[in-house]
TrEMBL record:
Primary enzyme class: transferase
The protein's role, per its UniProt record: Involved in the type II fatty acid elongation cycle. Catalyzes the elongation of a wide range of acyl-ACP by the addition of two carbons from malonyl-ACP to an acyl acceptor. Can efficiently catalyze the conversion of palmitoleoyl-ACP (cis-hexadec-9-enoyl-ACP) to cis-vaccenoyl-ACP (cis-octadec-11-enoyl-ACP), an essential step in the thermal regulation of fatty acid composition.
Catalysed reactions listed for this entry: (9Z)-hexadecenoyl-[ACP] + malonyl-[ACP] + H(+) = 3-oxo-(11Z)-octadecenoyl-[ACP] + holo-[ACP] + CO2; a fatty acyl-[ACP] + malonyl-[ACP] + H(+) = a 3-oxoacyl-[ACP] + holo-[ACP] + CO2
Organism taxonomic ancestry: Bacteria, Bacillati, Cyanobacteriota, Cyanophyceae, Oscillatoriophycideae
Similarity remark: Belongs to the thiolase-like superfamily. Beta-ketoacyl-ACP synthases family.
UniProt keyword annotation of tRNA processing present: no
Protein name in UniProt: 3-oxoacyl-[acyl-carrier-protein] synthase 2
NCBIfam families: fabF, PRK06333.1, PRK07314.1
Amino acid sequence: MTQSSTQRKRVVVTGLGAITPIGKTVDDYWQGLLSAKIGIGPITLFDPTDYACRIAGEVQDFDPHDYIDRKDAKRMARFAQFAVAASKQALTHAGLDINDLNAEQIGVMLGTGVGGLKVMEDQNEVLLKRGPSRVSPFTVPMMIANMAAGLVAIHTGAKGPNSSPVTACAAGSNAIGDAFRLIQQGYAQAMICGGAEAAITQLSVAGFASAKALSTRNDDPLRASRPFDAERDGFVMGEGSGVLILEELDTALSRGATIYAEMVGYGMTCDAYHMTSPVPGGEGAARAIQLALKDGNLQPQQVDYINAHGTSTAANDRTETAAMKAALGEDNARKAAISSTKGMTGHLLGGAGGIEGVAAVLAVANDRIPPTVNLDHPDPDCDLDYVPNQAREREVNVALSNSFGFGGHNVCLAFQKYS
């Protein structure tokens, strides 16, 4: 397949993988979402005693050796281990075997926000205490953000297009959208795509806490992440990886693959406004949603479900509410079911778009909508249908997934039932 193809190819989702704070497989993650399971608790990855925020959504009891041999795992940062694990799950779920015949037509696109920050912290300590000669030779290849994409290719044999968007909290969604474009335009037959993050580290938590971005509800971690709730006091960090297998339709049909949804739209914009704050009124986010709808030849009234970015910060939640009203029209926005799953998983930063893309696809496949937990006192400025506290059965023909990142990055992905 080449760039010269004149007609955009149809792209479908044939496999999913997930390593999350509420489940380390897709089935466990999905059941966790539907049962309103909350994976947030005290930080155990370091001693948080002196920190203003001492809670996070950690992936508990993750054993990389279930997916990677011990020697290789030792030379991989935690975010890359998550990415390889979720990618191998997704390939198995898709029943997709990478071999000599198709390897060059299967690529990898995996986003992250900060990459191997823990490696940098640890090796900086070695440098200061023991000198430069004792710094690990694996410091740079373990630390750099593109290594999740590179290692997934190494561990799966995928030799096609390979890249790693680093667009803060929009990175996972940018990776899925960019992979979608590559298949549409004939550069690949299939892509392993999504996001991964393992940023629950001393420096990261301290930095976000200093910026007053994190919840300090340390004595009540299960109720700390409260998207769209008037009593929220900041977001809660999470970690993990979510991966989709996107495949060109004819290729998927030729091998008898199960199709969970069709990906039809990708919108990407920038606020060009502020390093960390969204533009008031959500103009940039609204344009991203509108572009995804236009790309998918969808009308605003067709949107059944939106997996919102919904970080549990006042700036995001109110801006996103305004953006959805502006993009869909207020009447259509009020008819859509909307939820933020970050109340359960925490905010995976660059990995968020991966696990939330998985959730949006499963909503389409199962006609079930995950809830927004801890939504007990709705913010008056967030007055849409945020599916509070309990999952809902509803026919979902079209689902959107929103992701927004520091720097003003805005992404919206559109999925619909395959027919």
